[in-house]
Specification:
Rossmann fold; 6-stranded mixed β-sheet; 10 strands; globular; 23% strand; single chain; 4-stranded antiparallel β-sheet
């Protein structure tokens, strides 16, 4: 069964057509990347799926249910997690405390006294941190972590909502190359093992070609190409308007890495 479907999404900002007939589908356990030059409509499309923007036309469905224009918090309650280009964490909290707060919010317990918070969902929070390789640093203040580790904690926070769908906006932004590789390998492993669909935007072509199952290429609000990494790599229009030589090298490296 299709997990996520976008059908004919259109969005205008004044006289600018930011998204034109954007249509795609995503299955459980699949990694789908949206790429394109700056101003291509990636964020607009992403935000229409996540509920931050209401499309002018078209619809979004999650497991067959229409979620078009549903506010982000309600979308989250339906089984959609999200990470952001700049990690969203509580810097004054510990690593464990950040994940506990996400679990408290997920269970609708935010009105509990703050004194109770340290005892709530501790074991579940530790289990989530273990999934992302951060259990050993649970007691550390998050403000002391390297940025790559902060992004792992943010992933654990997103997983606290037990999502069917994970939206990741520029997940490797600000990270060193080795950190990018490790994070995307972690996400891909979780997605495929737990059958979580992942829709992500990304500028790092190494990350895209190494881990995406399929790719959508947006230019000026329109999808100009779609398919597997190999199909997108071979598309002459994609080469002309976006990938160029750097994208070709990234695709080639990904192909060598996967045999």
């Amino acid at each position: 069964m299709t997990l996520l479907a976008a059908e004919g999404l259109v969005k205008r900002f004044g006289g600018v057509l930011a998204a034109k007939d954007v249509t795609f589908a995503l299955d459980p356990g699949e990694m789908l990347a949206i790429i394109g030059p700056n101003g291509a409509g990636k964020s607009t499309t992403f935000n229409m799926v996540g509920g931050q923007l209401k499309p002018d036309a078209g619809r979004v469905t999650l497991a067959g249910a229409d979620i078009t224009g549903v506010p982000p918090r309600a979308v989250c309650r339906l089984g959609v997690g999200r990470t952001f280009q700049v990690a969203q964490t509580f810097l004054s909290f510990s690593v464990l405390g950040n994940v506990q707060m996400a679990l408290i919010a997920h269970h609708g317990q935010t009105r509990r006294l703050l004194a109770d918070a340290a005892a709530l969902h501790r074991d579940d929070a530790l289990a989530l941190l273990d999934r992302v390789g951060m259990a050993a640093q649970a007691a550390r203040p998050i403000g002391e972590l390297a940025y790559g580790d902060v992004k792992r904690v943010e992933l654990a926070i997103a997983l606290a909502a037990a999502p069917r769908l994970l939206l990741m906006d520029e997940p490797t932004a600000g990270m060193a190359p080795a950190e990018r590789t490790a994070l995307m390998a972690l996400v891909a492993g979780i997605a495929r093992t737990e059958r979580i669909g992942v829709l992500f935007t990304e500028h790092d072509m190494d990350a895209v070609f190494a881990h995406a199952d399929r790719i959508l290429v947006l230019v000026r609000g329109e999808i100009i190409a779609r398919g597997t990494p190999a199909e997108v790599r071979a598309d002459p229009e994609v080469q002309r308007v976006y990938l160029g030589h750097s994208g070709t090298r990234a695709a080639a490296r990904a192909q060598r890495a996967h045999g």
